Amino acid sequence: MPRPSSPHDGYTRMTTAYVHRLPSLPDQCISFDKQIDYFSSVSASLAQSLGQAQAAAHLSKSLFAITIGSNDIIHYARSSSSSAATAGGAGDPSQQFVDALIQVLTGQLQRLYDLGARKLVFLGTGPVGCCPSLRELSASKDCSAVANGVSVRYNAAAASLLGGMVARHPDMHYALFDSSAALLRFIDQPAAYGFAEARAACCGLGDMNAKIGCTPLSFYCANRTSHVFWDFYHPTETTARKLTSTAFDGAAPLIFPINIRQLSAL
Questions:
Q1: Is 238 a domain residue?
Q2: Strand pairing partners for 235?
Q3: Does pTM top 0.90 for this prediction?
Q4: Looking at residues 130-155, what average pLDDT do you find?
Q5: CB neighbourhood size of 155 (10 A)
Q6: What SS3 string covers 58-70?
Q7: Range of 114's domain?
Q8: In a 3-state reduction of DSSP, which class is residue 52?
Q9: Backbone φ, ψ for residue 69 (5° rounding)
Q10: Confidence of residue 79 (pLDDT cuts 50, 70, 90)
Q11: pLDDT given at position 130
């Protein structure tokens, strides 16, 4: 399974002018476009060593895991331009932002297909508005409606994109994990899923452990398995295990049209 694109990678170096107005992400992050460039080189090497037919057969059986967009949405929600309406109408800047992300993603996924990818695992963005970092910005410590609204629309648009690709390419298959809906279960009803804390981070400093990230000098919670979030952005290992279990063996509407185990067996 090729290395998945990370939620830290983001849509950096986009050509879309709208997205270029957002704060740039750290230089050490490798953009999805650059990762596809690297994969292009690997694909060419496989064809040279195995032969075109065998290389294509090998890639067609591989799983390509993609999770991307969370950092873009977080940066958007933090930007001053995100204070506009969140309903998703045609004149809504947040909808224009989602459209810009999907426009770029469309070309990126098509490139992967053209290079031989046939099985895609797409992990949608989670309810990033509920991460401690964005909660901490609210006086009431509520989730960011802007960020969560964008995440829901982005995931829906990604589902539509993948469905359209399958319609055009019958040999392509995918599993899409609705990370937003899956993680919101733990946040809205933590006790029902074995958690005691769904708002504050386990590791960090400041209000909700969300002012400063997790460092050797940070405060650590006594029981990390009781927390949904490890630091101001990321889930704990316990949360990740529960989400992974659903993605591998769950069913619609959280993972669809098939789960990862079923996709792997094709």
A1: no
A2: 229
A3: no
A4: 94
A5: 23
A6: HHHCCEEEECCCH
A7: 17-180+251-265
A8: helix
A9: 120, -20
A10: confident
A11: 97
For residue 208, being part of any structural domain is answered with: no
Please give the sequence-ordered ranges of beta strands (E in DSSP) within the chain, or none if there are none: 63-66, 119-123, 173-177, 197-201, 203-204, 219-220, 227-229, 255-256
Return the axis-axis angle of helices 52-60 and 32-50, rounded to nearest 10°. 130
Residue bearing tokens 């993609």: 66
Tell me if 121 is assigned to some domain. Answer: yes
The number of distinct structural domains making up the chain is: 1
**Residue 23 within any structural domain of the chain:** yes
179-193 pLDDT, tens digit each: 999 999 999 999 999
Both structure tokens of 113 = 């297909």
Residue 194: what residue type? G
- The values of phi and psi at residue 24, to 5°, are -75, 150
* CA–CA dist 177, 79 (Å, integer): 27
Structure tokens given for 209: 């452990």
Q: CA-to-CA distance for 198 and 186, rounded, in angstroms? A: 7
